[in-house]
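Lab meeting, action items carried over

1. Structure of the two-component assembly. Owner: GW. Status: complete.
Input record:
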Amino acid sequence: MKNPDDTDQLSPVPASKNSITQIFRLSGSTKTIKSKESPKCNKKQDSLWYALYFPQLEELSESRQKKLLSELASAVRQVSSEISFHSHALICEIRSSLKYFGGMERVHDKLAPVLNALLQQRGLPGYFLYAASPTVIGSLLLARSGHNVLVYQKNSLRSALGRLPTNVLRLSKEQNCRLYNMGVRYLRDIWRLPANGLHTRFGGDFVNLLNKALGKAPEPIHNYLPPPAFSTSYDLPFELENLDRLSPVVDEVVAQLCEFLRHRDLCISHLLLSLQHEKRDNTEVDLALRRPNRSQEHLIMLLETHFSNLIIPAPVTGVKLKAKKFNAFMGRSNSLLAEDRPTSTHGSENDLDQFVEQLHAKLADNYLKCIRSVSEHCPEYANQQTDYGEPIDESSNGDGHRKGKEQEAQFVALAPRPLWLLREPRQLVLRNSKLYHRKAVTLISGPERIETFWWSGTDVCRDYYVAREASGSRLWVYRERTSDKNWYLHGYFA
Amino acid sequence: MAGQGFRGQSTGFPQLDDILPSRGWPQSGLIEVITPCWGIGELQLLIPLMRSVVEQDKWVLWITPPHMPYAPALVQVGVNTDQILVVKRDTSCKDALWSMEKALQTSNFGLVLTWQNWLPGKVLRRLQLAAENGNTLGVFFKQHDSKYSPSQIRLKIKDSLVRNNNKEASDFSETEITVINARGNFRPLTTRVNLYQPS
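Predicted assembly:
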């Protein structure tokens, strides 16, 4: 069997250097068809798809291709709002903006330098192949062939596509072989074959592709959506000194943000509100949320909490809101049955997060602490303080959480521990062989010997006792077994 | 004796239950615990309550405790430290009260503990309302009694040594608790409780 790839005949047509746009028109009848169609097509004008094919992308890795294509797409956005991604190609709808730009040539002239420069910046040869036709796949096939053509009418698509070699279809090697052996070299040879036979030989996808190219089958596409960005500002008509008066403006700005979030199905986790002043630097309120949110009331409440601590250097002349970090919106459905436990606790978890966020807005960042017991022999190190939020991460993966529980379980068996441990042990006075703290101290039980850190310089060698002060409080005291044998107070049983 | 009708959350100390109206802690409201100095047994008194709050899947907030709570000890008495939050000591009084009010209004917290020495009645009344709205119990640890406070219960913990001088044996184990004022009680009642129970 002869491999069709070896033959010269099927090699792709090289891109014409001077890129002459051939325009296929049904001469003469064009005008009449147009005028006939226009009344009924007024409502639903046929789209014209402009395909940009970048053959140089083929050598790149898939992730780089994707990145580059989205960069190119943002450049193409200046001529069209409907852009879809295809393999090594971008296809955009151009009919709606033809009149504005004044023709296809102008659109191309506008795009070509930008895209070429962009490609060259990335170290790639700066050229691309293009074509336009009334169908997405049709344009793609025409662009792949390198024929840089423009087909206005759907009726002329069949003949225009017919001139293309079969390899523009990007079939598998086996299917290519089969087509070649059937004597099919160009698409027009396929047009002559019955659809049923093609369906059995090459499968439904193949026939569907051809139908799409000819505009006989619908072509669903995924539109390119630029990454979300939100920024809005409001200039006050007069200066404001009182931040309370600002709240209607802030409400309005936040409402705009929430509207945007709803449209894009997003949540926000970081936003920046700047208050502008005359001849001064802006006062900035940096709001980072613990859990992504898009509730207007919650955001406003947090901003107002921030405002309550804020001191402005000068009257406010304007407000600017900028979203810094978006997250996908995770909806949660309510349970049908009221007594369903998990959802109700989940909802209250949300409440807690709101409370903690508010607390963070009011107090400084590290004012809220969590405590955890750690498996550690030395009493000072057995208590771990963390900022709230870190343990949440750990509890989200069930394994770490369980491990923590086990560690805690080991601890329960040990000797009594005080509810309050002093950060620094306080030395007790020994007078006439009696101990004094604020009042006289008598030992009740003990000792419990704790010896650790002998491997490091700070040796811990202590005998712990439970003691009772004359005032009635219970103390945890120890005596050092090394050097001075001093007595120290280390905690209160409270 | 007090304690007819509605049954509250048991304090875990039968002697104390006996002298409290509704035979235990109320479901919501403010409790004042007055001690001559910190660390005299006031936390031990609340441990059973803390345990039951945590078991109900609610959180305990400690606002400005004089010392950091020690997690191993809490674990020992059966309080899960995952559900404990602490607001650090050097928070200003205003912020501390603000966070207490917010916490009392949030349904997640079952118990809010605060260490503050002196507060005007207006503030206490406001907190009392917040606690009733949020169905949360707030506890104030104070060193001085104020006669006209609107709190639901005012307790005083006294050192027991003075009274009990002649009975040496019970000296170390019992603490005197006086319920100065409680909604439902007519006069102050006093009992002796062994706070440091061998667990």
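2. GW to write a short summary for the group page. Key points so far: Confidence is low (pLDDT under 50) at residues 1-43, 340-347, 391-410 of chain A. The two ends of chain A are 93 Å apart (CA to CA).
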